[in-house]
Specification:
Helices cover about 30% and strands about 20% of the residues. It is of the alpha/beta class. It folds into two domains: about 5-160, no CATH class; about 180-325. It has a six-stranded mixed sheet with strand order 10-9-11-12-13-15. The protein has a four-stranded parallel sheet with strand order 2-1-4-8, with helices on both faces. Helix 2 packs parallel to helix 6 and helix 7 (about 195-205) runs parallel beside helix 9 (about 315-325). The protein is globular, with a radius of gyration of 19 Å.
Amino acid sequence: MILPVLLLAASQSLRAQAPETVLLVVNRNDPVSVEIGKYYRQRRSVPPKNVCAIDAPLNQEEITWQMYLDHIEQPVSSCLAAAKLQEKVLYIALARSVPLRVVGGGVLWGSEVASVDSELTLLYGKLHGQAFPRAGTVPNPFFGKLDAVFRHPAFPIYLVTRLAGWDLDDTKRMIDRALAARNQGKFVFDLRGSSDDGDNWLRAAARQLPPDRVIIEDTGSVFRQQAAVIGYASWGSNDRRRTLRYLGFGWLAGALVSDYVSTNGRTLNPPLETWLFPASFVGSTQSLSADYIREGATGSTGNVFEPFLTGSARPDYLFPAYFSGRNLAESYYLSVPFLSWQGIILGDPLCTLGKP
């Protein structure tokens, strides 16, 4: 049982959750991105010097490596340096319209494709002279460090999340729910009824939470219409029995979602409400992370390209950490083994349920 250790680490890390530890990045070319930044800064009292306006390509979710360096990494680096925030900032929040994916050569584990978010985590190391390969993954030094306080220079990375939903209203509601989060409600784990690693990680997550706070569906059926949900993990559209976009859950403020889906973060441009998988949308028939934000969740994990199960967020780290009081960003990055890879998280990095 790891909860006592998690509770200690969570209480220590609360000191690092001040708004001064967030760098808010907005795309000045998009009025919606600017408005999201303004709204988040006011709601979270982020200092003006912690706002970084960049000139990122508009309506372009996929960019080249040179575009990433020129329009995202270098401008963010300059913002940190100008305000002398390199050490103080722990979290980077990207407002909607910052591109999602960097593309390059290679295949499978040697691919140069990565999410902008995951690539940007390495900026702290780069500012201190580290170099990283574009191809493949970079080990996450924070992965599984359940008893550790996230701080610099012990962990030489930034934790990057994204303030985004399908539109401005979705994102504002997500921010409001983050501020209203409370440690209550049920954690729902919907398995495929197998003995593979994915299902075993879901079972392990359930075992590390109080039994009266857990619902586990282990028969292979799709669980729907549950009230008062604070956490949910499943196979998403990789469960062949899942045929509906929305689960009909009653999501509580602070609810966090994680699915084992390869491309659920592939776009933040919404499909029509009539879209149903297995119909294709933006090159895939898979379910989409932002649908959970639309339905009422406060955070949702995703992938911009194939992460493989081994590279996906681990629910047995994510949900116990979040339950214990870790913030959304720390809980997520505790659960992902690799950086410079495919993962994103939609949500306010400072969102926390507080102590149980």
